[in-house]
Every structure is written in structure tokens, then in C-alpha cells.
């Protein structure tokens, strides 16, 4: 089974040398000094490696079991969950007014990567709770906050999101779950929900469901959807779990992976629910959760790749097959470690350069969220709104691809369950689907986000690229290896955006047929930008003679791989986009 | 669970309109008239759809079980195997001198695609036997052929390939299994083999293992390897299964997929083996099996994609979510089928154009094998030798990618086991690994095949491309949509080959760092060539007003998608190749 080595050094480098967080003008960032973040990251890393990673294969093998309406999580999950709560990890970035520690979302994300790499299925129990906390924080009443937030922040109670029904997932206008008003101001919720992650389990003493439903007589479609809070146990006068509510888990999905997390079918039979926010404004409230969840899913995608890479690397260093072209690297052994072979290195560099670039992008995205929320920065808010579908879609598609490549390194051993790499592939696969399939992310990006506010956020992004290129224009090496390729890729992105502007009005299908390619094109430019910034930070450290020169040289070499071998994909995506919808839409439905 | 619709029309089109087999100057092809092949394909299709496909999910769920040395295959496999044997499907292209039906390998391949689409794990039991038959046919003694071939051809006995050992897979020079000569001319085989597909099972009354081992005192490395025939039961004087040989299955691998096929660890304890061919020439004999097996694996790759596509398409036609941009397609329903959405179409066209192009390539490859074997055509032999790693590597990488895309179409439902699409992903995954990982295919292509005979086969390939472009140069529509893109892609392939010639001698790592990209570049040009030929055949039929015009229009539209949206990837692969080994080999081993 794979062991897990927390990437504390890389995270510290990103926080303090690339993002320079302690100097950022964001309330609360001042405390984020290197010693402080190192202490948090090291402790989280220890838990990840020692407590969570060993339970990952257990969760995969055992899965969850439903008996008489009760879901049992895999052996060891309950004890580990208790330790996570006791250690305050569920409260890291939560509101101090309700018992949270008030740290930046950025630190929560860094810690979250480790937890997700070590055990994605386990970490989702608290991940869903985190999303529910955010939604209540923004849209809940003071009374709801007072009752629910403190218990959710400690992890004593957990949370869920209930959107999908058997007849609708993406098209939420079709939901049928009803909320009938009662005289006491509560609602009777009736309906069936499916694919509810952590919908029922034995880790927490209560489960707080956030449920989309329609109040009879409201508007048609998504404009008639409201959000309700439906606790598994109704809180009594002291706020402790009281009467059992009329909500039950009626089945568990049998899935390709993510076995340690209970994916539940839920049945509401006139369950007592409480309106969150205004009637018929449920979609807005749900999007608060969903945007955060989408960033979290992008994180999961590369976190699986990060963990899989470690397993592939271990194998490549230990397995002896063949000899290096340049002469034996292990002359006393029967053969050389396969790490000497160019194609094995290609696979590893492909993963490594993706994972480290992705980490930089997610950290930057988390900083933008902090800037938007803590410094009320509207520009940062618009930018992260634009980047959210890119982070979700690109990092999960590429993260999955990287787990497949990691599994390829050991050959046959990668296909057996013993090595554990197949679990990362199977677990990562869901990240391309849930919280909106990646096709929906692309639609959101091209059909909605791109044009928001006259395309201002997109222009802001291009300005940032230009600023980075300009700032370092005098560094000839940085220019050749990083800035010129970034400029070329950014030009491809601009050409694609222009194509959509020109064609989108004439024939919207021409934009939508290229939406997934656009998302990938944008993703590559984002990672190109991250690598340019990373390389600049590494060059600065080398110039100043700071720290471990080998670390910075490695960063530069890894970035050069990305720029040389990943980034040229922008040209392919642009070429596809510019062919428009003709070849995509040509066939009559009965000729497929 | 997915149903399976045999692609008989497409196969008939390929055989008779693209390849025009009945007119090919290959012995035995004269009988391949449309009515005859249609009858065979329809019967094979019926068995695939009605007998094999329903057992696919059963095999996945039950897997194989080892108890007291006996492997039980999943429920229904034994009866189905009996029906396959009784129907003569194991004997289709086998030598009539030993009871075979003597049909072309091409027809065996067409039938094999259906069997593999319907139930890949099941079909491998007879697939391995087919490979063992081929090896014995070429390298076995007359006595060995007389004893073993008739029983293997009927499927009464099955076959295996035993190469891998715990300490070596790719690097067979390291094998430790010993073959000690005995006075009676037989050998005592001792050693451990792993990952032996169909190494033990309950389908056949005897299992004929072909085993690589070293005769003590022979040359070092791969030059000291010999091939042995080791039957599970030693034939008695009448050739019936007699004494149990000292070979046993000691364990089954727990794998990501392919659960219906037993992947065995085998232990040979002084088992009686018989030399096949000459001592120390085992690698040559094994390559007879392996080349055929590699083509068969390429076929499996796209066959999984073909089956997965059907499942995705069914879902896309039935699932109602959202509305078409161009106005409701299903105005009386609550929403339109998701097939109306451009990104869903993109995913389906991506799969469809790949699968149909891949089918054309494998059919052409099978025809080359027939031409080489039946017409002793050395040029065809050299060409299929060059194309074998491309067919194996490209069609399994892209086939897997297509199964992942098929699983994406239904979103969450694709991730559940109920829909059955995840099995195609998990089963297809092994095709990128076994019979030589795709990295090894790329190494074989660039390090060996490309330069064989001074690069003659590569030149022959380019000549074929040029000939197709020239033949149809006057067809303006064909030129714009198919020939010009093919020419551009072929130019990229030439540039890559030139780069390897120029750099390969100076710095071989520059060639090997680009080997996987070269394999993909080559694969795309092959499929571009297939689509150009396919389009020309469709245009001819339309011009003559033959048959179902909609079928030919669909072919052209599907081909246009390939040329517009798949083929431009050649540019990306070339760009990567031309960056050489620098970024790939830059890191010291301890900095990964």
C-alpha cells in the first residue's frame, strides 16, 4: 500500500516565496509567518501520513454498509474522525464567533490537499460539512447560525448538500421535492434525493441536510427553488439532538471508487425543514456551497495525482529492469532502476510538473477567495468566479490523467490492487463528474463567466499575464524558457476568446462546441502563469543565494518541462475551437 | 447493464467497399464474398449480443476463485465456452490440416472484435489459445503439432504464455526459470511465473503452457532463453490427458478489472516440458505469439471503446435534461434528450470517429498479416511489423480514453456500477499494460522498427499516403476535408522521423524521450489515412447512387470530425518530440 509524504516544503515555498502571504494586504494574513504555517502543515502532514493514509485502502476494500437505515463507515473511520475533530481540524478556517479558529481559507486548502491525498473518501465527510457551514454562514438566520454552526464547526454534527433527484441532476428546474408550509413557520419536505455524499453515516451525532425543494405555487423552473435545512434529529430546546426527523437513507450506490464515502439515496417523508434565506432564492444559496465545493473538487483532482505520483516514483526507484542508455546506473545490481529510462522519466515529469503547477493554482485561487471575503475585493471575487470552472474542470481532467499515468509506471503491478495505485484512478474519476460534470463547468465558463461584466475578469487575467511577462522581461533565461511560451499560450487563449465573441452571437453552437477545449486551453495558460511566477521566485532565491539551491533548480527544471511539453497543447485546443460546431453537430440523431 | 449491437454494417462496408477483400490477390480471399462474410458476422454478432454480453457483468462481479489449486470461472462461463467450441469459433482461421476452418485472419479479427466488445475477459481464454496455436504452428515439431493442435483448435484444450516472473517482466534477460535436460529428451522445468492469463481454469480439459526458461549453461541474457511446452496433464499414448504435471496455480491476482479472466501465479516444480523449436531461440518463438497478441490487444482497446460508446449513446438518447439551443427537440417532454447539447455530441463524435477509424486500421493490419502469411509478401510483413506497436499502443491509449469519455456522458450514473460503463474503463485499462506496456511499444517502434531495413517500411507507409492523396487529388471536397489534413499530418510524421534520424545517433535519449509522442503521432496519421480511404469509398458509393445514402453521408461526417478535431494532435506531438530529452532527463534521481 502506498505511503504518503506530505509536501510541506513545496507548500511553504508557495506560501512564502511565490504568494508571499505574510506580506499580502488581506486581514488575517499577517499571522501567516513561515514558522506558524510550517507548524500547522507539519502537524496536518503527520495526521495525513500516519492516521488517514493507512485507512485509505481499508475504506476502499470495506466500503460502507447500510443495515436497517444505519450506515456503517469502514473500520477505523469513526476513531479517526474523532481525532480530526479533537484536533480542531474541522474548525480551522471557521468563524471564531461560532467556535472556529478564523484562519485563512488558503491554509484550510493547503491542509485539505494533504487530507485529500491521504484519504479522499474520509476527508469528504468533513468537506461536505465545511460547504454547509459556508452556506449557513452567508444565508442562515442568526438563530440557525447559533444552533447549528457551533456543532458543525466542531464536527459533532456533519452536513450534506441535497440537489440531485432521479429525474434530474444538471437540470435542477425539474426537481420535484416539495416543501409545504406549516403553521409554525417550518415546512414539510417530501421527495427523493440521490447521490447524497455522506447522507447517512455513523461518524457524527447529527446530520444537517441542506435540501433544494419547491414551495407549491412558486415560479416554474429554477426560479422556484428554495433551500431548506433538514436535520436528521430535530434539536431540542437546549439544541441537543432530539426527535428523529422523517428523513432516511434508502440505499447506497455501488460505485467505481470512493467506497469509503457513503453515497446515499435519501427519502424525505414530510420531514421538518427550515427555510434558509428567502423563498425561491435557493439556487443562489446553493451556489455559495457549490462554488466552494467546486474549488474543493479541483483540489481533490490534483491531490489524487499527487498521491499517485509518490507511489509511481517509489516503484520507479526500486524496480530493476534494463540498463540506462548512458551506461549502468546500478552496476552491482542485475539491472538499473527503471527511473533511468527516458519514457519512465517522461511519465514522472508529466505528473510532477502538473501536480506542482496545480498546487500553485489552487493556492492562488484560495488566496483570491480570502481577498474577496476578508478584504471585500470585488475584482478578486470576479476573478475567482471566472477561474472556478477552470480549476474544477482542468485540474480534475488532468489530475485523473496523471493518476492513470502513475498507474502506468509500474506496468502490471499498477493494475493489481496490491500496489494501491488503481484506487487513486478510481477515486479521482468521480472528480470529473460531481459538483457539475466537467462539460457543465465548460458551459458555465463559456456561456456565463466569460461574458460577465463585459468580460472584465478575463481582461484582468490577461493583464496579470502581461504584468508578469513585463516585470521579468530583462531576465533572458526566464524569458526564453517561461515568458515567451506563456505569451504564446496566452495569445492562443485570446484568439479563442475572440472567436467566441465573434461567433457566439451569430451561432452559439460554435462557442459551445469548443467549450471543453476552451476550459483546457485556459487551464494550461493558468498553469503556465503559475510556473512563470514560480520560476521567477526560484530565480530570485538562487540569485540571492538563499536556501537549498537544489530545490530551486528542481523547481526550474520541472517548470521547464511544463512549458515545453504540456503548454503547447494550447495550440491544439485553439485549432479545435476554430473548427466550430460543424463537425460536432453534423449527424442526425438517428445516425449515431 | 449495457446491451450490445454488433456493427455488422460497418464491418461489411470495410471489408467490401474499403478493403474490397474478395478482389484482393491473397489466397483464400476469393471466398470472402459479401453474403458469406455477412452470414459469419451476423452469427458471431448474435452470439456476442445474446450469449457473451449478458455474462460480462457477471464475470466482473463474481471474478474467478481459487480453491485447492482449482480455479472456478464465473457462473455461465463454462457453458458459454462449450457453445463457442461447438460452434467452431475457436477454429475459424486455424489450419485445416489440424481441424481448422482455414478462414483468413481478417475474418477472425472481425469476429474477435465483437467477442471482445461483448465480453473481453471471457474472450481471452480462447484468445490466449489462439496465440499458442500460432506459435506451435510455426515452431512446433510435427509430433507436437499432431498431438496438441487438433485439441487446441477445437478448444478442448486451451493455451497460455508464460513470460513474466516476480523479478522481471519487460527485461526477460533476468528470468530464472530453469529447464534441466532429462535423458528422455524432455526437460524438468522449475520456477515461478506471474500474471499468467488463463493459467488455470475449469473451461478446458487440459491447459498447454508455453513457458520461457533457461537451459543451464546457455548464453547470458535473452540469448539464453528457450521455449517449452508444458501441459497441465501429460498426454497419454492416445493423446488423451494423462498424468498430472508438476505445475500448479498458487494464487490469483486481485486486479482493477478483467475479473472474469484468471490471472495466475504459476509454480513449476520439475514439471515435464518439451522444447519448442531450437534451444536458446525461445525469444523468437515467443515473438510469433507476442506480435499476434499485440494486434489482439490493440483490437481489445478499441473494442472496449466500441461497446462503451453504445452505452453512452443509449443514455444520451434517453436522458432528458435541458433544452437544445436551437429550440426544443422534444417539446412535449419536460426536457430534451442530452444528445442535443454540443458538448455531449463532441464526446460522442470523439468516440465514434476514433472507434470506426480504429476498426479500419485493425482490419487493414489483419489483411497485411494474411498477405504476409498467405501470399508470402515480405513487404506486407515488414509493414505490419512496423505498425504492430502503433496498433497496440495507440489503439489502447485512445481506446481507454474513449471509454473514460463514454463514462462521462451519463455523469454520475456512469460512475455507478449499475450502468456497467465503469467496467469498460477498468477492463480497457489493462490493454495499455499487458503484452508490453505502451512505453515498451514506443521503444520497440522508435528503437527498433523504425530503422529496420534502412527504414524501408516507413518509406513504404509514406508512399501509401502519397498514393492515396494523388489518386483522389481531383475530388475537391475530399481534398479539402481529408487529403489536405492527411498531408499535413504526414508531414509532421516525416519531420519527427527526420528528427530521430538526425538526433538519434548524436544523442539517443532525444529519440527515446519522444518515443511515446511518436507512437501517437504515427497512430493519428494511420487513422487519418484510414479515414481518407473510407471517405473515398463513401464518396464513390454516393456518386454511383448505391445503397443507403445516409450511411455514406454519416461516414463522411464522422471522418470529417476525426480530421478536424483528432488529427491536429500531430502538431502537438511533433512539438514535444522536437524539445528532445533536455526537460525529460534534467532532474537528478533524488530530486523527483
Write structural notes for this entry:
The structure is a homodimer of 592-residue chains. Chain A has helices at residues 8-18, 34-52, 56-62, 77-86, 105-139, 142-153, 282-318, 342-374, 378-408, 412-415, 421-431, 438-449, 456-471, 476-506, 508-512, 515-544, 549-566, 569-577, 582-585, and strands at 65-67, 70-72, 157-162, 178-181, 187-197, 206-214, 225-231, 233-235, 241-244, 247-252, 263-276. Chain A has 592 residues and is an alpha+beta fold. The model of chain A has no long low-confidence stretch (mean pLDDT 96). In chain A, strand 1 and strand 2 (70-72) form a beta hairpin. Chain A is globular, with a radius of gyration of 24 Å. The two termini of chain A are 43 Å apart. At the A-B interface, helix 7, helix 8, helix 9, helix 10 and helix 11 of A face helix 7, helix 8, helix 9, helix 10 and helix 11 of B.
Amino acid at each position: 500500500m502506498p505511503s504518503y509524504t506530505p509536501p510541506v516544503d513545496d507548500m511553504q515555498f508557495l506560501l512564502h516565496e511565490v504568494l508571499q502571504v505574510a506580506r499580502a494586504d488581506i486581514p488575517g494574513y499577517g499571522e501567516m509567518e513561515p514558522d506558524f504555517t510550517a507548524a500547522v502543515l507539519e502537524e496536518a502532514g503527520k495526521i495525513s501520513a500516519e492516521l488517514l493514509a493507512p485507512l485509505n485502502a481499508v475504506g476502499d476494500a470495506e466500503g460502507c454498509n447500510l443495515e436497517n437505515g444505519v450506515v456503517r463507515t469502514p473500520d477505523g473511520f469513526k476513531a479517526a474522525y474523532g481525532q480530526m475533530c479533537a484536533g480542531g481540524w474541522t474548525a480551522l478556517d471557521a468563524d471564531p464567533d461560532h467556535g472556529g479558529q478564523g484562519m485563512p481559507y488558503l491554509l484550510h486548502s493547503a491542509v485539505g490537499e494533504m487530507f485529500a491525498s491521504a484519504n479522499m473518501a474520509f476527508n469528504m465527510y468533513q468537506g461536505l460539512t465545511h460547504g454547509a457551514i459556508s452556506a449557513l454562514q452567508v444565508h442562515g438566520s442568526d438563530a440557525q447560525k447559533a444552533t447549528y454552526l457551533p456543532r458543525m464547526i466542531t464536527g459533532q454534527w456533519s452536513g450534506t448538500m441535497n440537489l440531485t433527484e432521479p429525474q434530474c441532476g444538471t437540470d435542477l428546474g425539474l426537481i420535484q421535492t416539495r416543501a409545504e408550509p406549516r403553521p409554525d413557520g417550518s415546512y414539510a419536505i417530501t421527495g427523493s434525493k440521490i447521490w447524497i455524499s455522506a447522507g447517512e453515516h455513523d461518524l457524527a451525532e447529527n446530520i444537517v441536510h441542506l435540501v433544494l425543494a419547491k414551495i407549491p405555487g412558486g415560479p416554474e423552473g429554477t426560479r422556484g427553488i428554495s433551500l431548506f435545512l433538514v436535520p436528521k434529529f430535530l434539536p431540542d430546546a437546549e439544541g441537543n439532538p432530539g426527535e428523529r426527523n422523517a428523513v432516511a437513507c434508502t440505499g447506497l450506490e455501488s460505485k467505481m471508487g470512493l467506497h469509503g464515502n457513503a453515497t446515499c439515496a435519501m427519502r424525505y417523508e414530510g420531514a421538518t425543514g427550515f427555510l434558509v434565506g428567502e423563498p425561491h432564492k435557493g439556487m443562489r444559496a446553493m451556489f455559495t456551497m457549490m462554488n466552494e465545493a467546486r474549488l474543493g473538487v479541483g483540489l481533490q483532482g490534483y491531490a489524487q495525482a499527487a498521491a499517485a505520483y509518490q507511489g509511481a516514483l517509489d516503484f520507479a526507484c526500486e524496480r530493476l529492469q534494463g540498463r540506462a542508455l548512458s551506461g549502468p546506473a546500478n552496476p552491482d545490481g542485475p539491472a538499473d532502476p527503471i527511473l533511468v529510462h527516458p519514457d519512465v522519466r517522461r511519465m514522472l515529469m508529466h505528473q510532477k510538473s502538473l501536480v506542482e503547477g496545480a498546487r500553485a493554482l489552487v493556492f492562488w485561487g484560495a488566496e483570491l477567495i480570502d481577498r474577496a471575503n476578508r478584504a471585500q475585493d470585488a475584482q478578486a471575487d470576479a476573478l475567482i468566479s471566472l477561474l472556478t470552472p477552470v480549476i474544477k474542470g482542468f485540474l480534475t481532467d488532468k489530475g485523473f490523467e496523471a493518476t492513470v499515468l502513475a498507474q502506468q509506471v509500474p506496468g502490471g503491478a499498477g493494475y493489481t490492487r496490491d500496489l494501491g495505485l488503481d484506487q487513486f484512478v478510481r477515486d479521482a474519476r468521480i472528480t470529473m463528474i460531481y459538483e457539475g460534470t466537467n462539460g457543465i463547468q465548460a458551459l458555465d465558463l463559456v456561456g456565463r463567466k466569460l461574458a460577465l461584466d463585459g468580460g472584465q475578469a478575463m481582461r484582468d487575467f490577461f493583464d496579470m499575464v502581461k504584468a508578469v511577462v513585463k516585470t521579468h522581461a530583462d531576465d533572458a533565461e526566464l524569458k526564453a524558457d517561461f515568458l515567451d511560451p506563456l505569451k504564446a499560450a496566452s495569445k492562443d487563449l485570446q484568439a479563442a476568446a475572440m472567436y467566441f465573441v465573434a461567433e457566439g452571437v451569430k451561432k452559439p453552437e460554435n462557442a459551445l462546441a469548443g467549450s471543453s477545449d476552451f476550459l483546457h486551453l485556459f487551464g494550461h495558460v493558468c498553469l503556465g502563469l503559475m510556473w512563470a511566477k514560480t520560476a521567477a521566485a526560484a530565480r530570485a532565491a538562487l540569485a540571492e543565494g538563499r536556501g537549498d539551491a537544489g530545490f530551486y533548480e528542481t523547481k526550474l527544471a520541472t517548470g521547464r518541462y511544463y512549458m515545453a511539453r504540456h503548454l503547447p497543447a494550447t495550440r491544439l485546443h485553439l485549432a479545435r475551437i476554430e473548427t466550430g460546431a460543424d463537425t460536432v453537430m453534423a449527424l442526425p440523431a438517428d445516425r449515431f
